[in-house]
Design a protein that fits this description.
It is elongated, with a radius of gyration of 32 Å. The protein is about 75% helix and about 0% strand. The chain is built from 6 helices and no strands. Helix 3 packs antiparallel against helix 6. The longest helix is centred in the C-terminal third of the chain and has 52 residues. The protein is mostly helical. It starts with 6 loop residues before the first helix and ends with a helix. The protein has one domain.
Length: about 210
């Protein structure tokens, strides 16, 4: 039996089929345990890379702020030591003052080293995740910059989304490792600020007691 359909019925059936496919894709995307498709994985990786870069920049800003605080604390201690004689405090040649200055300078230099460690550029110690050429495209080292621009552009023309995702994943791994090292050094810097503030407070108390006790 032949069923005759009008053009309107045919178009309606096509629209219904498209709607069914859209609904199926929507339900598939709504599944929690499905795998990401390559482009979704690329977007997630780039977002994570941007987030880790922001974390690194925030760490650098906090380190610079810590250095400003450290400079202020050092200025206060310099005034305490140099103005001690004038204000009736302990003489700078006093063994206790010499020991305090030596201890303070040593700790201050140690925390300066940690600040430098937090701020210093990290070498891109990425694992090899290159494409067909065996060389990563996103990691521009000296060897990559020495090759002609046309060769580098040609490698990009042969790039695959899977290769880019693999390179982004290794970059994220490296950024995460560098951020952990940076934040660990930054924590030591701020811990050092607490120690130096405590030493400065003790010096101020001793100076005040010595001055008003005379």
């Amino acid at each position: 039996m032949i069923v005759r359909t009008t053009p309107e019925d045919f178009l309606r059936s096509v629209d219904d089929a498209k709607a069914v496919r859209r609904q199926e894709r929507f339900l598939e995307r709504a599944t929690e345990n499905r795998l990401l498709d390559p482009w979704e994985r690329y977007r997630v990786l780039t977002d994570q890379c941007d987030r880790l870069t922001d974390v690194a920049e925030q760490g650098d800003r906090k380190t610079r702020f810590a250095l400003l605080i450290l400079g202020g604390i050092n200025a206060v201690n310099l005034l305490i030591v140099t103005q001690g004689d004038m204000s009736g405090g302990p003489n700078i040649t006093n063994p206790a003052v010499v020991a305090y200055v030596a201890c303070y300078v040593f700790l201050s230099l140690c925390f300066f080293v940690y600040a430098i460690k937090a701020l210093r550029p990290r070498s891109p110690e990425t694992e090899e995740a290159g494409g067909a050429s065996g060389r990563p495209l996103l990691h521009l080292d000296d060897e990559a910059l020495r090759e002609p621009a046309a060769v580098y552009a040609g490698r990009w023309q042969q790039a695959q989304i899977g290769e880019m995702n693999a390179e982004l994943a290794t970059m994220i791994h490296t950024l995460s490792r560098n951020n952990v090292r940076k934040l660990r050094a930054l924590q030591r810097v701020y811990l050092g600020l607490y120690v130096l503030v405590g030493l400065t407070a003790m010096a101020l108390v001793v100076l005040a007691v010595t001055r008003f006790g005379q």
